[in-house]
Amino acid sequence: MTAFTDPPEAGAEPAARAHQHALEVDPLRRDEAGETLAQAAPPPPRKRPFLVAFLALGSALGLGAWHHWDVYQASLETQAEAVDFVPTVRTGPATVDDGPMRLTLPGQTEAFDHADIFARATGYIAERKVDIGSRVKKGDLLVRIAAPDLDQQARQAEAQLGQFKAQLAVAQADVEQAKANVTLANVTDARTATLAGQGWASKQNADQTRAGMLTATASLAAAQAKVKVAEANITAQQATVERLRTLTTFENVVAPFDGIIVARKVDVGDLVQGDAGSGTPLFSIDSIDVLRVTVQVPQSAAVGIHDGVKARVQVAQMPDRTFAGTVSRSSVALQSSVRTLDTEVDVANPEGTLRPGLYVAVTFEVPRMHPRVVIPSEALIFDAGGTQVAVVGTDDIVHLRPITIARDLGTRLELRSGLSSGEMVVLNPPADLREGGRVVPKGPTASRIPTAKLSEQASAE
C-alpha cells in the first residue's frame, strides 16, 4: 500500500521568496527572523578543526618520510665508508738481536771457604777469644784448651828421647873399643903367624891368635849394629816427641783463614775430645770477601755457559744494588734427573754487603750462537691459521706471515723463522684484518699513498 504525501500548496514558494526579500530589505526584520531561525534549527558544523587535523597529519607524514629518507641516506654513506674504509694501524720493525742473551735464574749465595773447626787436643776450654759474628784473620787465637795429660806425655817422650841418645853414645863407645880390639888382634895375629913360620911359635898359638882376631872383628860388627839400633830408636822417639809437640800446639785453636765466625758450640769449661771428627765442631767460619753463587742452568742455555761469562746478581731486599760476577766453574755434565748444569758465579764482596745463604736473581750475559729476529709481542696473531704476524709491504698491502717462536721474553718475541730484519709488522692488528687488505701505516714508516686516493682506488676496485 503506497503512502502519499500532500503536495505543497501552490502559493507557498512565492510566499517564501517574498519573505526572503522582505528580510533583505528590512534589517530589523532580518535579525528577528535570524534569531527565530537560530532558535528553531541547530547551526551547521565548523570546518576549522578538520583543517587543523588534516594539516597536522600531513606534517607528521612529511616529517616521517623525510626522517626515513635521511636514515636511508646515512646508511648508504655508512655502507660506502665501510666499503671504502682503509684502517690506520700502528707498525713496528722486526729487528735482529745479535747481542748477548740475557737469562735470569734464581740462585743462592755461599761462602767461598767454609770450615768446621774441631779439637785436636783433649782437654777443657780454658779461654775463648771470639763469638758469633767475630771477624778474624788467619792465625788469630779462637780458644785455648788446657790439656795437662798431653803436656806430660810430651815431657815423657822428650825424656825417653834423652835416654835413647845416651844409649847411642854408649854404643858408639863400644864401637871404638871394638875397633881397638880388632887392631890389636890383627897385630898379634900377624906376629904369631910370622913366628910360627920361623919355628919360634907353635902352630896352635898361631890359630888361637887368628881366632882372637876374628872374634874382635865380630864384636866390632855387633857394636856397630847397636849404634844403628840406638839411632833408629832416637829417630822413632824424635817423631813421637814432634807429634806430641804438634798436639800441644793444638791447645791453641787458631783461625785457618780470614773470615767471620758463623757458629759457636763451646764455652769456657767445656770438655772437648781430640780427633773426634764426628762430634760437634767448636766453631764454623766462613770466608765472605768473595762469595760463590750457585745456579742451576737449564739445558736450553747450558751450551752457552762457560768460564768467564759475565753475570749480574740482584737481591730483592736491595733493589738499588747490582753486583757484578763471573762464571768461574761448572760441573760440565748436566744432572740427568733435572737436566740442569751446576754453575758457580764468583762475586766480589769486599764490604761484606752480601751474606751467605741469600736467595738472589742471577742474570747471565750468554753469547748468542745464532742471531734471531725480534718483534714486539703485541704483533702476534693466533687464530685458526696458527701463529702469524701481519706484514705491511711497500705498497701498504697486508700479508699474513706464519712464524715460529723461539723464546717468549714477555714484551718481545724471538723468532726462529718467518721474518727478516727490517720488515714492518702491524701492532695490535684489528680482528677483521685480512690477507691483501690495504692499511695506512702509522709509526716508523708513513703511508706513501694519501687516504683519499686509497679510498678512490678501493672504490675503483
Automatic annotation (TrEMBL):
<dbReference type="InterPro" id="IPR058625">
    <property type="entry name" value="MdtA-like_BSH"/>
</dbReference>
<protein>
    <submittedName>
        <fullName>RND family efflux transporter MFP subunit</fullName>
    </submittedName>
</protein>
<feature type="compositionally biased region" description="Basic and acidic residues">
    <location>
        <begin position="21"/>
        <end position="31"/>
    </location>
</feature>
<feature type="region of interest" description="Disordered">
    <location>
        <begin position="1"/>
        <end position="31"/>
    </location>
</feature>
<comment type="similarity">
    <text>Belongs to the membrane fusion protein (MFP) (TC 8.A.1) family.</text>
</comment>
<keyword id="KW-0813">Transport</keyword>
<dbReference type="Pfam" id="PF25954">
    <property type="entry name" value="Beta-barrel_RND_2"/>
</dbReference>
<dbReference type="GO" id="GO:1990281">
    <property type="term" value="C:efflux pump complex"/>
</dbReference>
<feature type="coiled-coil region">
    <location>
        <begin position="147"/>
        <end position="181"/>
    </location>
</feature>
<dbReference type="InterPro" id="IPR058627">
    <property type="entry name" value="MdtA-like_C"/>
</dbReference>
<feature type="region of interest" description="Disordered">
    <location>
        <begin position="435"/>
        <end position="461"/>
    </location>
</feature>
<dbReference type="Pfam" id="PF25967">
    <property type="entry name" value="RND-MFP_C"/>
</dbReference>
<feature type="domain" description="Multidrug resistance protein MdtA-like C-terminal permuted SH3">
    <location>
        <begin position="373"/>
        <end position="427"/>
    </location>
</feature>
<dbReference type="Pfam" id="PF25917">
    <property type="entry name" value="BSH_RND"/>
</dbReference>
<dbReference type="GO" id="GO:0015562">
    <property type="term" value="F:efflux transmembrane transporter activity"/>
</dbReference>
<dbReference type="InterPro" id="IPR058792">
    <property type="entry name" value="Beta-barrel_RND_2"/>
</dbReference>
<dbReference type="InterPro" id="IPR006143">
    <property type="entry name" value="RND_pump_MFP"/>
</dbReference>
<feature type="compositionally biased region" description="Low complexity">
    <location>
        <begin position="7"/>
        <end position="17"/>
    </location>
</feature>
<keyword id="KW-0175">Coiled coil</keyword>
<feature type="domain" description="CusB-like beta-barrel">
    <location>
        <begin position="293"/>
        <end position="365"/>
    </location>
</feature>
<feature type="domain" description="Multidrug resistance protein MdtA-like barrel-sandwich hybrid">
    <location>
        <begin position="114"/>
        <end position="274"/>
    </location>
</feature>
